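Anyone able to model this chain together with thiamine diphosphate?
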Amino acid sequence: MQTAPNPATETKLDMEQLFEVRRVLNPDGTLVGPEPDLTPEQLKEVYRLMVYLRVFDQRCLNLQRQGRMGTFAPFSGQEACQVGSAYLLQKGKDWIFPTYRDHGAMHTLGVPSVNTLRYYMGDEMGSRAPEGVNAFPISIPIATQLVHAVGAAWAAKIKGEDTVTVGYVGDGGTSPGDFHEAMNFAAVYNTATILFVQNNKYAISTPNAKQFKTKTLAQRALAYDIPGVRVDGQDIFAVLTVFKEAIDRARAGGGPTLIEALTFRYGPHTTSDDPKRYRTQEEVEAWQAKDPIERMRKYLVTKGLWTDTDDESLWNWAKDQVNAAVTEAESIGKPSVDELFDYLYAEPTPELLRQKEYLKKYLSKQG
Ligand SMILES: Cc1ncc(C[n+]2csc(CCOP(=O)(O)OP(=O)(O)O)c2C)c(N)n1
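re: yes, here you go
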Protein backbone atom coordinates (compact mmCIF):
# COMPACT_ATOMS: atom_id res chain seq x y z
CA MET A 1 0.00 0.00 0.00
CA GLN A 2 1.29 3.45 -0.92
CA THR A 3 1.40 6.08 1.83
CA ALA A 4 0.45 9.66 1.00
CA PRO A 5 3.28 12.20 1.20
CA ASN A 6 3.34 13.94 4.57
CA PRO A 7 3.82 17.70 4.02
CA ALA A 8 5.14 18.13 7.55
CA THR A 9 8.14 15.91 6.82
CA GLU A 10 8.43 16.21 3.04
CA THR A 11 8.49 20.01 2.84
CA LYS A 12 12.02 21.20 2.37
CA LEU A 13 11.48 24.94 2.59
CA ASP A 14 14.56 26.83 3.69
CA MET A 15 13.12 28.90 6.51
CA GLU A 16 16.26 30.99 6.96
CA GLN A 17 16.00 32.02 3.34
CA LEU A 18 12.23 32.51 3.47
CA PHE A 19 12.58 34.70 6.55
CA GLU A 20 15.75 36.42 5.54
CA VAL A 21 17.20 38.86 8.06
CA ARG A 22 16.33 42.44 7.13
CA ARG A 23 19.25 44.85 7.36
CA VAL A 24 19.81 48.48 6.37
CA LEU A 25 22.96 49.53 8.22
CA ASN A 26 26.11 47.42 8.29
CA PRO A 27 28.23 47.17 11.45
CA ASP A 28 30.71 49.57 9.82
CA GLY A 29 28.00 52.22 9.44
CA THR A 30 27.54 51.84 5.66
CA LEU A 31 24.08 51.49 4.14
CA VAL A 32 22.82 48.36 2.40
CA GLY A 33 19.24 49.52 2.04
CA PRO A 34 17.11 52.67 2.04
CA GLU A 35 17.30 54.77 5.21
CA PRO A 36 14.11 55.26 7.21
CA ASP A 37 12.27 58.46 6.37
CA LEU A 38 13.57 60.60 9.25
CA THR A 39 14.81 64.19 9.41
CA PRO A 40 18.42 64.85 10.52
CA GLU A 41 17.00 66.02 13.86
CA GLN A 42 15.08 62.77 14.28
CA LEU A 43 18.16 60.72 13.38
CA LYS A 44 20.08 62.50 16.11
CA GLU A 45 17.20 62.03 18.53
CA VAL A 46 17.23 58.29 17.91
CA TYR A 47 20.98 58.18 18.55
CA ARG A 48 20.62 60.35 21.67
CA LEU A 49 17.98 57.99 23.03
CA MET A 50 20.20 54.93 22.54
CA VAL A 51 23.17 56.60 24.25
CA TYR A 52 21.00 57.80 27.11
CA LEU A 53 19.60 54.32 27.61
CA ARG A 54 23.07 52.72 27.65
CA VAL A 55 24.16 55.14 30.37
CA PHE A 56 20.94 54.61 32.31
CA ASP A 57 21.22 50.84 32.12
CA GLN A 58 24.83 50.79 33.31
CA ARG A 59 23.96 53.13 36.16
CA CYS A 60 21.12 50.86 37.29
CA LEU A 61 23.52 47.91 37.42
CA ASN A 62 25.86 49.97 39.60
CA LEU A 63 23.02 51.06 41.86
CA GLN A 64 22.04 47.45 42.40
CA ARG A 65 25.63 46.50 43.20
CA GLN A 66 25.74 49.33 45.74
CA GLY A 67 22.59 48.05 47.42
CA ARG A 68 20.57 51.07 46.33
CA MET A 69 18.27 49.12 44.02
CA GLY A 70 16.66 45.67 43.97
CA THR A 71 17.07 43.01 41.28
CA PHE A 72 17.48 44.65 37.89
CA ALA A 73 17.20 43.28 34.32
CA PRO A 74 19.71 45.09 32.08
CA PHE A 75 19.23 45.52 28.32
CA SER A 76 22.57 46.97 27.15
CA GLY A 77 23.08 45.62 23.62
CA GLN A 78 19.37 45.73 22.86
CA GLU A 79 19.02 49.52 22.44
CA ALA A 80 18.16 49.39 18.73
CA CYS A 81 15.28 47.04 19.51
CA GLN A 82 14.15 49.20 22.40
CA VAL A 83 14.20 52.55 20.60
CA GLY A 84 13.28 51.24 17.14
CA SER A 85 10.16 49.45 18.38
CA ALA A 86 8.65 52.44 20.16
CA TYR A 87 9.93 55.51 18.31
CA LEU A 88 7.34 55.53 15.52
CA LEU A 89 4.29 54.77 17.66
CA GLN A 90 1.73 57.53 18.07
CA LYS A 91 2.06 58.89 21.58
CA GLY A 92 -1.20 59.00 23.52
CA LYS A 93 -2.83 56.61 21.07
CA ASP A 94 -0.81 53.42 20.62
CA TRP A 95 0.02 51.13 23.56
CA ILE A 96 3.01 49.03 24.56
CA PHE A 97 2.97 45.93 26.82
CA PRO A 98 6.55 45.52 28.04
CA THR A 99 8.55 42.86 29.88
CA TYR A 100 10.97 43.53 32.73
CA ARG A 101 13.70 44.22 30.10
CA ASP A 102 11.84 46.86 28.09
CA HIS A 103 12.26 50.04 30.12
CA GLY A 104 14.17 51.40 27.11
CA ALA A 105 11.05 51.15 24.96
CA MET A 106 9.02 52.62 27.81
CA HIS A 107 11.42 55.56 28.04
CA THR A 108 11.26 56.07 24.27
CA LEU A 109 7.49 56.32 24.52
CA GLY A 110 7.73 58.85 27.36
CA VAL A 111 7.95 56.99 30.68
CA PRO A 112 10.34 59.08 32.83
CA SER A 113 13.48 57.39 34.16
CA VAL A 114 12.38 58.26 37.68
CA ASN A 115 9.48 55.84 37.25
CA THR A 116 11.77 52.98 36.24
CA LEU A 117 14.14 53.73 39.10
CA ARG A 118 11.29 53.83 41.61
CA TYR A 119 9.94 50.52 40.32
CA TYR A 120 13.27 48.75 40.62
CA MET A 121 13.87 50.39 44.01
CA GLY A 122 10.75 48.61 45.19
CA ASP A 123 8.09 51.29 44.84
CA GLU A 124 5.11 50.05 42.81
CA MET A 125 4.15 53.67 42.10
CA GLY A 126 6.92 53.63 39.51
CA SER A 127 4.57 51.53 37.36
CA ARG A 128 2.17 54.41 37.01
CA ALA A 129 2.99 56.04 33.67
CA PRO A 130 2.07 59.73 33.33
CA GLU A 131 -1.29 60.52 31.76
CA GLY A 132 -1.08 60.13 27.98
CA VAL A 133 1.93 57.79 28.08
CA ASN A 134 0.41 54.50 27.02
CA ALA A 135 2.75 51.97 28.57
CA PHE A 136 1.37 49.09 30.58
CA PRO A 137 3.27 48.18 33.75
CA ILE A 138 6.19 45.80 33.29
CA SER A 139 5.12 42.15 33.16
CA ILE A 140 7.28 39.73 35.14
CA PRO A 141 5.35 36.57 34.13
CA ILE A 142 6.63 35.84 30.65
CA ALA A 143 4.24 36.05 27.65
CA THR A 144 1.11 37.03 29.61
CA GLN A 145 1.47 40.58 28.32
CA LEU A 146 1.03 39.39 24.72
CA VAL A 147 -2.53 38.35 25.45
CA HIS A 148 -3.13 41.77 26.99
CA ALA A 149 -1.68 43.48 23.92
CA VAL A 150 -4.00 41.54 21.64
CA GLY A 151 -6.98 42.19 23.92
CA ALA A 152 -6.31 45.91 23.95
CA ALA A 153 -6.06 46.02 20.16
CA TRP A 154 -9.27 44.03 19.87
CA ALA A 155 -11.05 46.43 22.25
CA ALA A 156 -9.81 49.40 20.19
CA LYS A 157 -11.06 47.71 17.03
CA ILE A 158 -14.51 47.17 18.52
CA LYS A 159 -14.58 50.86 19.46
CA GLY A 160 -13.62 51.78 15.89
CA GLU A 161 -10.23 53.22 16.86
CA ASP A 162 -7.10 52.64 14.77
CA THR A 163 -4.85 52.12 17.79
CA VAL A 164 -1.79 49.88 17.38
CA THR A 165 -0.45 47.77 20.27
CA VAL A 166 2.97 46.20 20.70
CA GLY A 167 3.48 43.13 22.87
CA TYR A 168 7.12 42.51 23.87
CA VAL A 169 8.54 39.08 24.57
CA GLY A 170 11.89 37.25 24.62
CA ASP A 171 12.89 34.04 22.84
CA GLY A 172 12.06 32.02 25.96
CA GLY A 173 8.67 33.69 26.08
CA THR A 174 7.71 32.10 22.76
CA SER A 175 7.36 28.68 24.44
CA PRO A 176 4.45 29.29 26.87
CA GLY A 177 0.90 28.81 25.63
CA ASP A 178 0.16 32.53 26.01
CA PHE A 179 2.40 33.28 23.04
CA HIS A 180 0.43 30.94 20.78
CA GLU A 181 -2.93 32.02 22.15
CA ALA A 182 -2.04 35.63 21.47
CA MET A 183 -0.91 34.80 17.92
CA ASN A 184 -4.04 32.83 17.18
CA PHE A 185 -6.43 35.39 18.59
CA ALA A 186 -4.63 38.26 16.85
CA ALA A 187 -4.82 36.39 13.55
CA VAL A 188 -8.46 35.30 13.86
CA TYR A 189 -9.67 38.75 14.93
CA ASN A 190 -7.20 40.56 12.69
CA THR A 191 -6.10 42.86 15.51
CA ALA A 192 -3.67 45.75 15.10
CA THR A 193 -0.99 44.06 17.19
CA ILE A 194 2.74 43.73 16.69
CA LEU A 195 4.19 40.76 18.54
CA PHE A 196 7.81 41.67 19.04
CA VAL A 197 10.26 38.90 19.92
CA GLN A 198 13.70 40.07 21.00
CA ASN A 199 15.69 36.92 20.42
CA ASN A 200 18.74 37.60 22.59
CA LYS A 201 19.77 33.92 22.35
CA TYR A 202 19.26 32.98 26.00
CA ALA A 203 16.29 32.64 28.33
CA ILE A 204 18.25 33.15 31.52
CA SER A 205 20.79 30.34 30.83
CA THR A 206 18.74 28.30 28.32
CA PRO A 207 20.13 28.72 24.77
CA ASN A 208 17.94 28.84 21.65
CA ALA A 209 18.87 25.24 20.78
CA LYS A 210 17.20 24.00 23.95
CA GLN A 211 14.21 26.34 23.62
CA PHE A 212 12.91 25.59 20.12
CA LYS A 213 13.72 23.35 17.15
CA THR A 214 12.80 25.65 14.27
CA LYS A 215 15.53 27.58 12.45
CA THR A 216 13.75 30.87 13.09
CA LEU A 217 11.01 32.16 15.38
CA ALA A 218 9.52 34.34 12.64
CA GLN A 219 8.39 31.23 10.74
CA ARG A 220 5.83 30.56 13.47
CA ALA A 221 3.77 33.27 11.80
CA LEU A 222 3.10 30.82 8.95
CA ALA A 223 1.05 28.60 11.24
CA TYR A 224 -1.25 31.51 12.04
CA ASP A 225 -1.30 32.92 8.51
CA ILE A 226 0.08 36.32 9.48
CA PRO A 227 3.22 38.11 8.26
CA GLY A 228 6.44 37.09 9.99
CA VAL A 229 9.62 39.16 9.74
CA ARG A 230 13.21 38.62 10.85
CA VAL A 231 15.38 41.66 11.43
CA ASP A 232 18.91 42.49 12.53
CA GLY A 233 18.17 43.74 16.03
CA GLN A 234 21.51 45.60 16.23
CA ASP A 235 20.55 47.75 13.26
CA ILE A 236 18.35 50.63 14.35
CA PHE A 237 17.43 51.54 10.75
CA ALA A 238 16.23 48.02 9.98
CA VAL A 239 14.19 47.85 13.21
CA LEU A 240 12.60 51.23 12.45
CA THR A 241 11.85 50.11 8.89
CA VAL A 242 10.12 46.84 9.78
CA PHE A 243 8.17 48.58 12.53
CA LYS A 244 7.05 51.32 10.13
CA GLU A 245 5.73 48.65 7.77
CA ALA A 246 3.99 46.72 10.55
CA ILE A 247 2.51 49.85 12.17
CA ASP A 248 1.20 51.19 8.85
CA ARG A 249 -0.34 47.85 7.93
CA ALA A 250 -1.93 47.38 11.37
CA ARG A 251 -3.34 50.90 11.41
CA ALA A 252 -4.85 50.44 7.97
CA GLY A 253 -6.70 47.31 9.13
CA GLY A 254 -4.17 44.82 7.77
CA GLY A 255 -3.82 42.94 11.06
CA PRO A 256 -0.97 41.63 13.18
CA THR A 257 2.72 41.02 12.47
CA LEU A 258 5.25 38.82 14.22
CA ILE A 259 8.69 40.43 14.31
CA GLU A 260 11.75 38.51 15.45
CA ALA A 261 14.81 40.65 16.12
CA LEU A 262 18.20 38.98 16.40
CA THR A 263 19.91 40.67 19.30
CA PHE A 264 22.03 40.11 22.39
CA ARG A 265 22.16 41.31 25.97
CA TYR A 266 25.71 42.15 27.00
CA GLY A 267 25.08 41.79 30.72
CA PRO A 268 23.48 39.16 32.95
CA HIS A 269 19.85 38.07 32.67
CA THR A 270 19.33 39.98 35.90
CA THR A 271 21.65 41.14 38.62
CA SER A 272 21.18 37.76 40.30
CA ASP A 273 22.96 35.54 37.76
CA ASP A 274 26.46 35.10 36.35
CA PRO A 275 26.43 34.78 32.53
CA LYS A 276 30.01 33.44 32.48
CA ARG A 277 28.52 30.13 33.57
CA TYR A 278 26.52 29.66 30.37
CA ARG A 279 28.16 31.66 27.56
CA THR A 280 31.66 32.47 26.41
CA GLN A 281 33.51 35.77 26.37
CA GLU A 282 34.11 35.26 22.60
CA GLU A 283 30.39 35.17 21.99
CA VAL A 284 29.88 38.40 23.94
CA GLU A 285 32.72 40.11 22.09
CA ALA A 286 31.41 38.99 18.68
CA TRP A 287 28.13 40.71 19.48
CA GLN A 288 29.81 43.80 20.88
CA ALA A 289 31.56 44.19 17.52
CA LYS A 290 28.07 44.69 16.02
CA ASP A 291 27.07 47.29 18.60
CA PRO A 292 23.95 49.27 17.62
CA ILE A 293 25.16 52.57 19.10
CA GLU A 294 28.61 52.48 17.52
CA ARG A 295 27.03 51.53 14.19
CA MET A 296 24.78 54.57 14.21
CA ARG A 297 27.56 56.87 15.42
CA LYS A 298 29.68 55.86 12.42
CA TYR A 299 26.75 56.51 10.10
CA LEU A 300 26.09 59.98 11.55
CA VAL A 301 29.77 60.93 11.34
CA THR A 302 29.99 59.81 7.71
CA LYS A 303 26.84 61.80 6.94
CA GLY A 304 28.46 64.92 8.41
CA LEU A 305 25.77 65.14 11.08
CA TRP A 306 27.97 64.34 14.07
CA THR A 307 31.46 65.05 15.47
CA ASP A 308 33.63 63.64 18.26
CA THR A 309 32.89 66.77 20.29
CA ASP A 310 29.14 66.22 19.86
CA ASP A 311 29.63 62.68 21.05
CA GLU A 312 31.56 63.66 24.15
CA SER A 313 28.94 66.24 25.11
CA LEU A 314 26.15 63.71 24.56
CA TRP A 315 27.66 61.06 26.87
CA ASN A 316 28.27 63.77 29.52
CA TRP A 317 24.73 65.11 29.12
CA ALA A 318 23.34 61.59 29.52
CA LYS A 319 25.34 61.04 32.72
CA ASP A 320 24.04 64.34 34.16
CA GLN A 321 20.45 63.47 33.24
CA VAL A 322 20.70 60.04 34.80
CA ASN A 323 22.33 61.47 37.94
CA ALA A 324 19.46 63.94 38.30
CA ALA A 325 16.90 61.15 37.89
CA VAL A 326 18.64 59.02 40.54
CA THR A 327 18.73 61.95 42.99
CA GLU A 328 15.04 62.56 42.41
CA ALA A 329 14.08 58.90 42.79
CA GLU A 330 16.07 58.53 46.01
CA SER A 331 14.52 61.66 47.48
CA ILE A 332 11.01 60.20 47.20
CA GLY A 333 9.98 58.63 50.48
CA LYS A 334 9.32 54.92 50.88
CA PRO A 335 5.79 53.77 50.02
CA SER A 336 3.47 53.25 52.98
CA VAL A 337 2.33 49.80 54.06
CA ASP A 338 -1.20 50.62 52.87
CA GLU A 339 0.03 51.00 49.30
CA LEU A 340 1.06 47.35 49.26
CA PHE A 341 -2.55 46.34 49.71
CA ASP A 342 -4.80 49.13 48.48
CA TYR A 343 -4.78 48.82 44.71
CA LEU A 344 -5.48 45.20 43.89
CA TYR A 345 -9.25 45.34 44.36
CA ALA A 346 -11.71 48.23 44.55
CA GLU A 347 -13.00 46.61 47.79
CA PRO A 348 -10.24 44.85 49.76
CA THR A 349 -10.92 41.22 50.68
CA PRO A 350 -11.09 40.26 54.40
CA GLU A 351 -7.86 38.28 53.95
CA LEU A 352 -6.01 41.28 52.55
CA LEU A 353 -7.27 43.47 55.41
CA ARG A 354 -6.09 40.85 57.91
CA GLN A 355 -2.65 40.73 56.27
CA LYS A 356 -2.39 44.51 56.25
CA GLU A 357 -3.17 44.78 59.98
CA TYR A 358 -0.74 41.95 60.72
CA LEU A 359 2.08 43.65 58.82
CA LYS A 360 1.42 47.02 60.45
CA LYS A 361 1.52 45.49 63.94
CA TYR A 362 4.65 43.53 63.05
CA LEU A 363 6.44 46.62 61.75
CA SER A 364 5.46 48.78 64.72
CA LYS A 365 6.78 46.07 67.10
CA GLN A 366 10.06 46.16 65.13
CA GLY A 367 10.13 49.92 65.70
C1 LIG B 1 5.26 32.38 33.33
C2 LIG B 1 6.67 32.45 33.80
N1 LIG B 1 7.42 31.34 33.85
C3 LIG B 1 8.70 31.42 34.29
C4 LIG B 1 9.24 32.60 34.68
C5 LIG B 1 10.68 32.66 35.15
N2 LIG B 1 11.48 33.39 34.19
C6 LIG B 1 11.80 34.67 34.35
S1 LIG B 1 12.67 35.28 33.08
C7 LIG B 1 12.66 33.82 32.28
C8 LIG B 1 13.35 33.68 30.95
C9 LIG B 1 12.79 34.57 29.91
O1 LIG B 1 13.62 34.59 28.82
P1 LIG B 1 13.24 35.32 27.49
O2 LIG B 1 11.79 35.18 27.23
O3 LIG B 1 14.16 34.86 26.43
O4 LIG B 1 13.46 36.87 27.80
P2 LIG B 1 14.77 37.66 28.25
O5 LIG B 1 14.82 37.55 29.75
O6 LIG B 1 15.95 37.03 27.58
O7 LIG B 1 14.57 39.06 27.83
C10 LIG B 1 11.96 32.86 33.01
C11 LIG B 1 11.78 31.47 32.58
C12 LIG B 1 8.42 33.74 34.60
N3 LIG B 1 8.86 34.95 34.93
N4 LIG B 1 7.14 33.65 34.16
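The CA atoms of residues 105 and 306 lie 24 Å apart.
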